Every structure is written in C-alpha cells, then in structure tokens.
Amino acid sequence: MKELPQEWDEEFDVVVIGSGFAGLAAAIEARYAGASVSILEKMKYCGGNSLISDGLVAAACSVFQRKHKIQDSPELMQDDMVKAGLGLNHPDLVRTLAEKSKEALQWSMDCIGVEYLDRVDQLGGHSVPRTLTVKGHSSFHTGAFLFRKMMGVVKRLGIEVRTQMYLEKLLKDENGGIRGVQIRQGYVFPESESGTVTFLQVKKGVVLATGGFSSDVDFRSTQDPRLTADVESTNRKAATAEALIEALRIGATPLQLSWIQLGPWASPDEKGSGVGSSFASVSTFPYGIIIAPKTGRRFVKESADRKIRADAILKTGRPSIGITDARGAKPGKHMLDRCLKKKVLKAFHNLEDLSGFYKIPSEELQNTIKKFNSYVKNKRDMEFGKTILTDAQPLIHPPFYAIRLWPKVHHTMGGIQINKNAQVIGLNKQPIKQLYAAGEVTGGIHGACRLGSCAIIDCLVFGRIAGMNAAL
Amino acid sequence: MKELPQEWDEEFDVVVIGSGFAGLAAAIEARYAGASVSILEKMKYCGGNSLISDGLVAAACSVFQRKHKIQDSPELMQDDMVKAGLGLNHPDLVRTLAEKSKEALQWSMDCIGVEYLDRVDQLGGHSVPRTLTVKGHSSFHTGAFLFRKMMGVVKRLGIEVRTQMYLEKLLKDENGGIRGVQIRQGYVFPESESGTVTFLQVKKGVVLATGGFSSDVDFRSTQDPRLTADVESTNRKAATAEALIEALRIGATPLQLSWIQLGPWASPDEKGSGVGSSFASVSTFPYGIIIAPKTGRRFVKESADRKIRADAILKTGRPSIGITDARGAKPGKHMLDRCLKKKVLKAFHNLEDLSGFYKIPSEELQNTIKKFNSYVKNKRDMEFGKTILTDAQPLIHPPFYAIRLWPKVHHTMGGIQINKNAQVIGLNKQPIKQLYAAGEVTGGIHGACRLGSCAIIDCLVFGRIAGMNAAL
After folding, report:
1. pLDDT single digits (tens) B140-167
2. Average pLDDT for residues A437-464, to the nearest whole number?
C-alpha cells in the first residue's frame, strides 16, 4: 500500500525493536539461526528497564532446585501464576513460560555465561522456592549484570546495535504482512519529530520488544484514570507506549491494558524503586503498621497483596505513613543507614515526635499502636486480619522508623496479543505475518497480576521464541 | 483512500448503527436537530438487549426523589459509581452521566412519553434511593416498554429504520474522518458473507451504538480467558464485537476491555437472566448459603459484591448449590411457583434428600448448616463475614429450596474511548472526525464494575449527546 517507500534504505532479515532482555534474547537466537539482525533502540543507551531490574529469575525444575532438593513442576509454577493472575492469564502462554523456564535459565548460563547465587528463594505467591538471583557486585539491580553478559554475546555474534532509532511505522504490504519499518534515525527522546526518516526492509521478521508503558502518563491514565502525573513510576522515563500504539494502529489485538501493577512499597521521597521500598518490604509491612496521617488509624491489612494495598493507599488521597520500631527494623538493618541518609526513612525517639512531624493526631496514633500491639500479643489482628508473623513483637522499642508511602506504577500486564509462537495476533484473530513480540509489550501471560521474579524469565522465554521464529 | 467507493449508493446526514436505547436516543436527537437519519440494525428485529432489559433507570435529583423527599446530588451519584468502578471510571464521563441523568429522565417522560412507577428504589451500591422502574404490564423486562415508546417516536419523526444491515466497514477519507459506511444489506446473523454490499455516504456523522460483546465467546475470552463457551451469557446472541473490532481497526482507542461483569445469581438451568436469578437475588443470597457440592462447605461471603461471588463460584470449577428454607424463600415467594415449574429451583423435604440429589457429602452439609445457623443466631458470620440481616433466621424449616448457580456474562464495561461530547477518540488522542459512540460499545463510564440501573441512563444520556453532536 501507499505506506511502503519507493526505495528501501537498507535491508535485514530480522529487525528487533528494543534492547532489553526480550530484544537481546530475540536477536541472539535469530542470529544463531543464521539471520542478519539489527537491534534498534530509541534511547541513547541500550537496556531500558532491564538495566535497573532486580535480576530475579523464577524457573521450575532448575538445577538449583534439584541441588537444594526442592520439588517443583511447570504445572505448579503455572498454577501459582494463574492464581496471582486471577485466572486472566492466557493458558497457552503461561504454560509455555512455565515449561520452557528451565531451558531458558540453562541457556542463560550455558550460552550467555550468567552466574547465579547458590540460593533458591521463595517469593510471595510462589508455592515453593524457585527464584534465582543473578550474581553481581552489588545487591541492587543485578539485572544489569545479566544485561551486560547478553550484550557481550550480541557483540561477539556481530549483531548490529543502533541507538536513537525510533520506530515510527510498521509497514504492511497489500497482503497485510510486515515488509519493513519506518525509523527516525538520530531520534532524541521524547521529540517525536527529531531525527531523519529512514526505511529498513525486513525480509523475515520484525520483533517488537519495546517493554511496558508504566511511564506513559497519557496512555496509562486512559486505561486507569487514577494513574495521572501525580503517581510516579518505578520505571525509567523511556517506558512509553508509542510502539504498542503503532502495533494497535496496524491491527494488533489489545489485551488487558487496564491491568497495571502498582508497587505499594514505594516512597515519594526517593526516585524509582529505591532502597526505602526494599526496607518497607522486609520491615515495615511485615512487622509494622500503615496509617493514614489524617486519622492516625490503620486502613488496610498490611500483609494483603500488592494490588489491595496500593489501591487502599491511593484511595486515602495522600501518602500513608508506615511505622515500625527498633525490633521490626531488624530484617532491613543492612539498608537502615542508606535509608536514613537519603531521608526516605526517619527515626524518632518517641511517638509524640513522630506524630508532630507528620501532623498525625497524636492520641489516635497512640491508640492505634496500643490496639495493634494487643493483636500482636494475641497473634490475631481483629481489625484487618494481618498475618502476625511468629517472630513479630509489639511496637514499643524506640527508635520508631517512619516512611512515607505512595504507590508507583511498576508493571503493565496488558499489551498486544501473541500466541505461543510469539506471533502477534490481529483483530481478525490471525497472526500478522512477519510480526513477533516478546516481553512487557505483550499481554496475557501474567493476567491480572504479575508474580515477582516472573518478568525476566518471560523476556528470556518469549524473546528466544520470537527470535527463532522471526528468523525462519 | 482506496476504501472509499467510486460511487455511493445513498446518502444521509447521520447514520446510527444499532437500534437499542442508545441508538434510538441518538437518532431521535439527530432528527430533532434537522438531520436526515437512518438507523441500521444487523438483526431481523430491532432492540437488541434493550428489549430484555429490566427497565431500571437511575437518576440524581429526579422529580420522584423530590416528591419522596430523598436528598441526592450528581456528585453523590458520581461517587457511588466511582466506588463501584474501583476508581477506573473516566471522571469527565461519569460526571456527565450523573449531571445529565435528571434531564435525560425528564426527556424520557416529556418527549418519549414513558411512565414510571411512583416508587424510588435503593439498589446495591447506591447511597440513596434513586432508581425508577419503567411502568409496564408485567414485572419482567419492562425495558421493552421504554423501547416501544422510543420506537413510536422514531416512526413519528419519519426516521428510517432498516434491519439486516451489517456494518462491514467504517470508511475514512484521506484526512482520517469518517465519510461513510460499507454495509451488508440483507445480512443474516451470523453469516459474515451474507447479503450484498452497499455504500452509504454520511454527510455529518456516524453514531456507533452497537452494544457490548457479552455473547462473543472469541472476543471476550481473549480479554478474560475464563469466559469460554462453557460460560453462558444473560445477553442475546447478537451481543457480539464486530462493530467494536471495526472501530479498533480504523484506530479507535480501546479501553478497559478486560473488565467483564458476571452475574453470580445466574443458573445454568434456565436461559438468559431468568426467574431463578431473581429468586436467588432476593432469597438465596441474602438469607441462605452457597456451597460447593463437592465439599458441602461454604466458600464465599454470600453478601459480597457481584465480582467476588462470581469469581469464587467460577474458581470451584462447577456449579454451586444455593440453599434456603421456607422462611428464607419469603421475599421471593411470588416467583416460587414459576421457579419450581421451570425446575430451576427444587424443593426438598429434608437435607438428606437434598444432599442425595446433588451428590453432596451429607454430613458435611449438615455441619455447614449447623454452623451457619449458629452465626445467624449470634448475628455474626465468623467464617466469611456475611451480612446477617435483621430478619434472617436459621435454616431449619422445610422445604429447603436449592438452586444451581453458575455465573453468566452480563455486561462488558470496556469498549472504545469517547469524550464527554460522545466523540470517539483515536490512538493519536484526537477525536476521529464524524465518529460518535454511545452505550455499552463505549468504555470508561462504569470503570471496573457497573452499578445496577446505570446502563439505561448511560444509553439515554450519551445517546442523546451523540445524536445532537453528530447532526451538527
């Protein structure tokens, strides 16, 4: 049709849009299959959100589980994901992920050279320990180490990586198949008119691996109007929806776009995920309480799932205060100094000072804590049903540590529809020829709620499938 | 572009697709504004789901509320809708609905000639009584009376209504505005190739009023994979997604498509909504219990919202059994004979017979009921927190009435994005010129969950707006 150029500027067998885990996995597999491959990244630097990922990788029946004598199965992993996803997961996609997770993990070690800590963790929502941690030099963002290893392989294989290349159009021929891409070369985010237009012909396939849209205020607030610019994101700025929108424009089927995950453990007093969030996850939520500063009262079960907690905090209209004491702070003690230095966490000698600082009605707060302490003693929360851990103790030992909490947009579960071959499905229910997708730009794998440590493995499994099939 | 025909077969100022409440309201207003109007209905008969609607109409500050001294406000109605919608409602749309509800109600009386019962009901989720019931000859489906009155006005105004006219394409010109429609005339549902193609030029606007997609197994199960063909719908067969998909194809923005409402009060032993559902709503759920036949145990708070109950029943994997006794059946006694005759409800002299019939472990059921009866006596459900009504009594008086329950797809909250002028919003965030939409085909008004009695008023308010603006 009209959109195809008179002449192409260049041609490749496979073009991969996006340079995070999914894109790199796709490019590597396509190259192994003998295709000429180009990776296009819209930003000046590669990696997207993968660079700031926590490096946690879930896999069923891994060698690590075998070594640690942990019984697991793809079926159990699938069940866990479907339970968290409230049954909205596309069965064939989640099954594929669970079945191929072991192989993808092994691939990351054997072919990419990643190392993992000799430890298998059981994260919330997983029935057994099955989460591995990429080995790195620091305990934060170890996903960057996985990224660097993958980038090393990309370079070794001679795959071309170009930055500041913005996907403006997916170009269809008269039969509806993708024949190429219209790119703005020299693009400067977020200026949509920057750079110059170039046309790349694609002989075998395009892989969309452009990530989610957590940082796209317009698009996300259309799907969930609560998520205005007042709500921050744990994602990098570049996590926007242009490529997803372009896929919709050419007829890809949208899927579950309004399921957007918020992190309830986020603080407005630091950027991104941050160390305060980590402290809140291991200390404040499990051992302390969350109150509304206006009333001084609790309003949500602190052990409820991410969605329930985040929704409840948002509903109060302003940041909540999470409070724990010296004993409750122990599980997060290695982060304590950094939190205090960053001022995301504040220490108070007594509850009066804490109330005064946050303008909380002091008597109400005292009363709230007195009640909570009695629940801890009786091992039963009579108000909100919070799980009282066996080692939980009443909040009486100063210093009291307080953190402001306001949810941040963390992950977009929805996206475009793919099948288990990573082919993008059109509105006519048929695959769009030569178009593949993997990672957060796709929908249906995680359903209503993504379990922790299932994002990287999603990128690896479906990125590889997309790359292999795009090269056919 | 290519899609426009060499020659048009006919021309109109305004073409309305769909002949339910929203479509008729739009057609009437467009005609009042002086436009030539054609209503196109894909089925042999007009009315769609509006014909089987319950005729309940919510409005804030109606003359009826004034007469009955009920304090209300558009803000309160908006708050109620947003609360039910979990905050996902588009604020400008829900505000418009609440603000214009009084006027639309008045219009239905003054201009359409509808009469309402002199009674204002308070439905679940509404803070005050604000629901009116269309006066009819029977107490079921009184929406049909509203439909007939509207159809009378349509005829009186000389608006042309054509049936078996299937929207195949919305035709855009090179500037992206809608110039006409490609229709299959003589279409026989659901044969997509039936009828002959005709091209209607549209000089002012097209109004999409094609309803929801509750009966479209393919489309709904893409958005919510639980909703396979095994789940029935309360809707008519024609509630399918073709027109919505066509709107997406030409670049309309999809919105919250995966929020699909299930009716937990539905029985697999009757078609559609049915009388058994009505009985369950007023007797079984408020006064009785719901158990899983496999275990003989309760598994959900019977007074929870529609979504929680429906999700819980689906999760058990097979129809639940709702049980009440002679006293609990009283609120539904006027429906009792019809329910028993239709065999959707069954009466048992004792619990042994009931257990035997449904193959429920008898001792477990006895035990479940004994426990439940003790909660009723103590006015507190210690297991699931069910609201024990003040007039609730232990389940001890035979006959025991049992109904099989399995959710049915009832309403699709999502659809295409419109603004408060009922203009359809494209993926580029701009209105698509000359394209309007109203009613269930649109998304964002009801958010995650539509409150009862808010569907007809939605059709009237936005149907009118769409018709007025399409005629400009």
Report:
1. 678 999 999 999 999 999 999 999 999 9
2. 96
Complex ipTM: 0.89
Q: How far apart are alpha carbons B210 and B200 in whole angstroms?
A: 18
Which spans in B342-379 are helix H?
A: 351-358, 362-378
pLDDT for the residue A307: 83
Confirm whether A306 is a catalytic residue.
Answer: yes
Is B257–A253 a contact, with Cβ atoms under 8 angstroms apart? no
Tell me the CA distances in angstroms from B76 to B99, B121, B419, one per residue in order: 10, 16, 21
* pLDDT value at A231 more than 60: yes
The residue whose two tokens read 């559609």 is B272
Element (H, E) at B25: helix B21-32
Rounded to the nearest 10 degrees, the angle between the axes of helix B21-32 and helix B455-470 is 30
Tokens of B226: 């639980």
Instruction: Identify which of A224, A427, A444 has the shortest CB distance to residue B248.
Output: A427
**Gap between the Cα atoms of B76 and A282, Å rounded:** 40
- Closest residue in chain A to residue B89, using alpha carbons only: A225
Each residue of A189-228: b (16+ CB within 10 Å) or e?
A: eeeeeebeebbbbbebbbbbbbbbbbbbbebbbbbbbbbe
Look at residue A136 in the predicted model and tell me its pLDDT. 85
Q: Retrieve residue B316's tokens.
A: 């058990």
Q: B222 vs A91: CB contact, 8 Å cut-off?
A: no
Residue B139's pLDDT band (cuts 50, 70, 90)? low
Tokens encoding B387: 């609201």
If you count them, how many residues does chain B have? 472
Q: Is A342 helix (H, G, I), strand (E, B) or coil?
A: coil
Give the residue numbers in A contacting B (CB under 8 Å), as ranges. Answer: 1-2, 86-91, 218, 222-226, 245, 248-249, 251, 253-259, 311, 314-315, 414, 417, 427, 429, 444
Chain A positions touching B248 (Cβ under 8 A) are 248, 254, 427
Q: B254: cis peptide before it, omega within 30°?
A: no
Backbone angles phi, psi at B99, to 5 degrees: -65, -35
Q: DSSP H helical segments within B157-305, as ranges?
A: 217-223, 242-249, 274-279, 285-287
CB contact under 8 Å between A225 and B88, yes or no, is yes
Hey, are the CB atoms on A225 and B89 less than 8 Å from each other? yes
Q: Which pLDDT tens digit goes with each residue over B292-306? A: 999 999 999 998 888
Contact B418, B209 (CB under 8 A): no
C-alpha dihedral sign at B391, B394, B399, B401: positive
Residue tagged 């459900």 (tokens):
B381
